[in-house]
Design goal:
2 copies of one chain form a homodimer. By secondary structure, the first copy, chain A, is α/β, with parallel strands linked by helices. Helices cover 40% and strands 15% of the residues of chain A. The longest helix of chain A is centred in the first third of the chain and has 16 residues. Chain A starts with a strand and ends in a 14-residue tail after the last strand.
Chain lengths: 349, 349
């Protein structure tokens, strides 16, 4: 793929590929064909597009040389969770090891912020992008592709574009391990607080929970599955809903640690003890849940390792090498601490 | 001050100002005088230093122009605390608002990592540096000064160099507010778990605690002050020490939230309830302590705002403007939640 960037380039920093396509009166894929030197473009169209690219400061990016300072862009939707710092730590460490700087941005799910980020990315001639759990608009995906800046997605938020490598965690296996742990302690009524339905990771964790119940011959009770959005508030609300059922569960699996903390707070507020009155399992193993009260049993998601692998993958792409696999899942581990125990009155046989 | 940078510059990226001074057989300040065009250097020395600067790829940095993509470097010692993400959030937001990218690095307190970071900073021609709670070696300070890259320190770890602006929090007032809150609830024996003695912020919080006690006419009992290092483990150990005193306190002020979480875990492990058996106050107001069990009373340190102000200050310096003050402290606020109450058996009169 051709590598094109607007280095510096005053006015060039203000115009997108989409805008160039508009001004040339052609489609974005046509601009892409011109950039990539393909023959299936008419000479007139080619000349018009090339003139616009030149005028707006797009030009072939020089091949990577030791004289240029490498930069990788790490893009979050929001920087509002201790979750983020684990990924930053992994990305910074791997990028630093490769002599590259890590530029951290948040685009707040706003298309204006995303487009401004793209302009800045072009101006600083970034070498690659690691995108965390947030969907870019298709036009920005296309622009990165045309610029020849490789993209890797960590923990995809939905169906990723087919040609983008993704790094995830083994969410299904993690959901199955969390639920299996509760089953092995003797729990039979196990509630689940899910993540947002639009995220694939939420669906995979829920399916792992279902698979574990099925494997133990327990019919799924849909009333035990309540929605959450990963924020502690939703864990509080979800646990409250479960406690108000006519026949509440004896254990709850929260699909994220912060929801587990909210659930524990809901139990504490009602004078219920963890794990004597209710077992709680989380998902993530954020650094602070080792110090929740009680220390949280959870599924460790290797966030820093996911960040490191994303960097190694994006660096391979900058050298025009292919990743080992377009879709990698790193293993999750159950970490048993003090928030889970056998249900009250249960004898392990 | 002259602005000098090694843009790209193969071999130039590998040699420090100190090394240039060594090769020229002069002092680092002499190299600085040459760079800054001062007249108090002999012509022979000037020629020798200029030749070395040229050979190693140092050259006058072009004046900031709209065509160059601005970059700010945000440097941590370690990226291992949710504390970090709050500062990153503030810095990214302010930098983004000014059209600058934020390059995040960790130097792990290792001089090798710090020097490598400096080489990369030069190669990417960064516009300014925000340094968080970590002391740079004097030679690196000097190198930044010679490069003309402005530096602002957030929450200084010790006595900062006199010509570096620092952004801190009102640590003394915060320590006083935390202790005053416990006094107002009726506590008279109040323990404190301090931060590392080498950090100024630790000293200021401890002095605030002492001032509040003194203001209430309570003599300081030195056995109630135990050392910590901001990690939860040290809060656990410190609280354990306090509980083993012949006459333990009825409340404890931990100089950091993560130590407060460790203290709560030590209490829970002994079957003691918070706040019925012991009140606990933290310091920071990290996002997750709203969801600790119980929700933590703490002193809010405006970490994101401190990051924003650091960016505004460093940007002023890039324009050769002076900061409002070389040393700014942002206010802290007491946030009362559920981990504090009157001591057992106490009647508020």
């Amino acid at each position: 793929m051709g590598r094109v960037a607007a280095h510096g380039g005053g006015a060039g920093g203000r115009v997108t590929i989409t805008e160039i396509a508009r001004q040339a009166g052609v489609s974005v894929p046509t601009v892409s064909r011109v950039v990539n030197g393909r023959s299936d473009v008419s000479p007139g169209t080619r000349a018009r597009v090339e003139e616009l690219l030149r005028r707006h400061g797009y030009r072939k990016r020089p091949a990577a040389s030791p004289s240029r300072a490498a930069l990788l862009d790490l893009v979050f939707n929001d920087l509002d969770s201790p979750w983020a710092v684990e990924i930053i730590r992994g990305v910074e460490e791997a990028a630093h090891g490769a002599g590259a700087g890590t530029v951290v941005s948040a685009i707040h799910g706003r298309s204006g912020d995303a487009r401004e980020w793209m302009r800045n990315l072009r101006a600083r001639a970034s070498d690659g992008v690691v995108l965390v759990t947030s969907a870019l608009e298709p036009t920005l995906h296309e622009e990165l592709r045309i610029l020849g800046v490789p993209l890797v997605v960590v923990d995809p938020a939905g169906s990723p574009a087919l040609d983008v490598p993704t790094i995830g965690a083994a969410n299904w296996s993690g959901g199955m391990a969390a639920t299996g742990h509760l089953l092995s302690l003797g729990h039979r009524r196990i509630g689940m607080i899910t993540g947002p339905a639009r995220l694939l990771c939420s669906r995979a964790r829920l399916d792992g929970y279902r698979a574990a119940l099925e494997g133990s011959g327990i019919a799924l009770d849909e009333s035990l599955v309540v929605p959450g959005d990963f924020r502690p508030e939703s864990g509080f609300a979800g646990c409250t809903t479960l406690l108000e059922l006519p026949d509440p569960p004896t254990a709850v699996f929260a699909a994220g640690d912060r929801m587990a903390l909210g659930a524990i707070e809901a139990l504490r507020g009602r004078g219920l003890r963890v794990p004597q009155d209710m077992s709680v399992v989380g998902f993530d193993d954020l650094p602070e849940v080792r110090w929740s009260a009680p220390p949280l049993t959870t599924v460790r998601q290797p966030l820093a390792d996911m960040g490191k692998l994303a960097v190694r993958t994006v660096l391979r792409l900058t050298r025009d090498e292919q990743p080992d696999s377009p879709r990698v899942e790193l293993g999750t581990d159950l970490v048993v601490r003090a928030s889970t125990a056998a249900p009250a009155g249960h004898r392990l046989s």
